[in-house]
Amino acid sequence: MGNNRSNVPRFDVNIAFLLFLFFCVSCIGIYSAQSSGQYNENFLVKQIIWYIVSGGIAFGVMFLDSDQLQKLSWYAYAFGVFLLLILFVAPNTSFTPVRNGAQSWFIFPGLGSIQPSEFVKVFLVVALSNVVTKHNEKYRIRGFREDFLLLLKMGLTLALPLGLVLSQPDLGTSLVLLAIFVGLVFVSGISWKLIAPAFSVLAVFGGTVLSLVMYAPDFLEKYLGVNPYQLTRIYAWLDPRSYSGEGAYHLLQSLMAIGSGMVEGKGISGEGVYIPEGHTDFIFAIIAEDFGFIGGSVVISLFFVLIYYLIKLGLETKEAFNSYLCVGVISMVTFHVFQNIGMTIQVLPITGIPLPFISYGGSSLMGNMLAMGLMLGVSYHHKRYMFSSNG
Question: Transmembrane stretches, by residue range (predicted)?
């Protein structure tokens, strides 16, 4: 028998079902966080609205094929950089306020706040995927010169948004942008003879900065403009008991909440450990307290299933651009999950990165759902044939 060669687009119910499960977990976690009485707003209702809006964004993006995305990539990238530039030059006003030492938001009366860097992450994924695809199509035979040129192109694409986000300052989002860059560099085809020295230099630089943090913080503050509160976060991570009244308060409360949940959790009672802003960055601690080790394991397992499915999707797609999109989104989501959960259990320092799809926040949710829209599009436009068989 032959193959029926009619292409059959198909909505990916697997991704949609996983997103529905994340929606359920998010609603339960936010409801529990706000039931403690520390908030006057109904964040649960707002999160449901954000999910509806974000779902519409994901559904709309799904219909864009790879050719259309490549054509739009630089427009989206330029738009994201433009928004970051506005924040860079804007004064401290009610429209562009400084919050917790960072100027990262636009405030729209009646609508809430929008954080452009959440969208810039996804725009960077698309732009870097386009850069790698076009370069590899142009240079079929690769040498050191071609690999170095690609690395330079990717570095320049990263540099502008990274510099603007760092200037806000927003270290957490900057690390996400770097994670996306690193993930795509590894699969871009660049020789390890070039990658290894480049990342060795970065490792030495990182080690030097860490040494300065520990032994010469005055140098970082005076000559590199590092904010003292960022250094406090590092010290609080390494020795939270000594900084219980400063940067370690959230961490200590998080550890207490997660530990008190034990295996099965306390249930949603509204009488748990007090965690400021528990509905956002520390929502995993809320879930682990209420549902224990079992509940925390379920959340982590959902992310593993999502990442596994996106890896499978990236390997199955026949277009290089779509594979790079998958790698970029996987890098973004994976880093978010490891960083967010890691900071709640003191494995990693606190950086203010939300837990994808679960933490409350319109910008974060829309940015992540925009990324899922790209993944739905990769699956939707992937060629499938009815009644396909070999023989």
Answer: 12-33, 48-65, 72-90, 105-128, 148-165, 171-187, 194-216, 291-311, 323-345, 357-378
Contact 254, 231 (CB under 8 A): no
Do you find a cis peptide bond into 228, omega within 30 degrees of 0? no
Show me where the domains of the chain are located.
21-41+66-89+115-368
3-state secondary structure 297-339: HHHHHHHHHHHHHHHHHHHHCCCHHHHHHHHHHHHHHHHHHHH
Distance CA 33, CA 290 (A): 10
Closest CA to 336 of 325, 321, 322, 348: 348
Rounded Cα–Cα distance for residues 59 and 63 (Å): 7
3-state helix, strand, coil in the chain (%, to 5): 70, 5, 30
- Rounded CA-CA distance 302/297 in Å is 9
**Tokens (6 digits) for 190:** 């660049």
How far, in Å, CA of 166 to CA of 155, rounded? 15
Buried b (16+ CB within 10 A) or exposed e, 230-248: bbebbbbbeebeebeeebb
